[in-house]
Amino acid sequence: MEQHKGTKGSGLALVTGAAGGIGSEICRRLADRGLTVVVADLDAQRARAVAEELGPTHLSLAFDVADEAAVELAFSKLESDHGPVRVVVCAAGLLQFEPNGDRPLIKSTELELWNRSMAVNATGVFLCARAYVRRREAAPVPHGRFITFGSVAAQLGGYRSSASYIAAKSAVLGFTKALAREVASLGITVNSVSPGLIDTEMLRSTVTSSGAMEAAAAGIPLGRIGTVADVASAVDYLVSEEAGYITGGVIDVNGGYRMQ
Length: 260
Ligand SMILES: NC(=O)c1ccc[n+]([C@@H]2O[C@H](COP(=O)([O-])OP(=O)(O)OC[C@H]3O[C@@H](n4cnc5c(N)ncnc54)[C@H](O)[C@@H]3O)[C@@H](O)[C@H]2O)c1
Hints:
By secondary structure, the chain is an alpha/beta fold. It has one domain: Rossmann fold (3-Layer(aba) Sandwich), CATH 3.40.50.720. 47% of the residues lie in helices and 15% in strands. Strands 3-2-1-4-5-6-7 form a seven-stranded parallel beta sheet, sandwiched between helices. Strand 1, helix 2 (21-32) and strand 2 (36-41) form a beta-alpha-beta unit. The longest helix has 28 residues, at 111-138. The structure holds nicotinamide-adenine-dinucleotide (NAD). Nicotinamide-adenine-dinucleotide (NAD) binds next to helix 2, helix 5 and helix 8.
């Protein structure tokens, strides 16, 4: 590790959904920034692979963000072994489809699917936030950062995703503001990144016909699908000390697909 990196921002950063397309790129950026990264995902094997790629000072952890006991245990174990978590990035997300690949319409959405979407996409953020805030109240850190993931789907009522996903991501946007207000006095900033169409497995799972990616790109003012690097850059900035006066906000990373 180069010496200057440590001065750019040190401490422990927990990234959920860190084995995914966007999450793994965020891990690389935060490791470059000098943070010790905890690569957390439901998929233990892929999380381990990402942590190994980052190097021996980084860790991997497998837990379900929707499981209250598992989240508490993860934070407790992490902090007792490695000290306080300074940065949390909640990138875990779940976009579900019907068995035949169609997006579930509201009229045919089973309660089980709805509940799982809310549990992973929204409740998981609440559980991680609560675990983090309780510990930061007891043991404050300088420049605390909490970053959530919304989606352009929640902002536009998305036509590639499902109502359960859109509703859960809308909840995250509201929760982000509530949390920002509650923890401002602890010096913790809370912001959301709202990706548009980003080239990951999640987006490709919505593409059902050939040429659909090109067609989607043509509808974006900047003329291309976003990359995981585009999204990780926004997270990297929000984590920086320079972003210390930004809280309760949303950074849209969507190539102009949706403008406020
Ligand atoms: N790719 C896009 O176009 C896009 C657009 C808007 C928003 N997003 C959001 O960005 C974030 C990252 O998405 P991505 O494209 O990298 O998706 P991805 O599917 O590549 O990665 C998501 C990761 O979350 C993990 N995960 C799922 N359920 C989990 C759980 N219960 N506990 C812990 N981990 C769990 C998965 O194992 C996976 O590694 C998500 O929150 C997603 O909703 C993505």
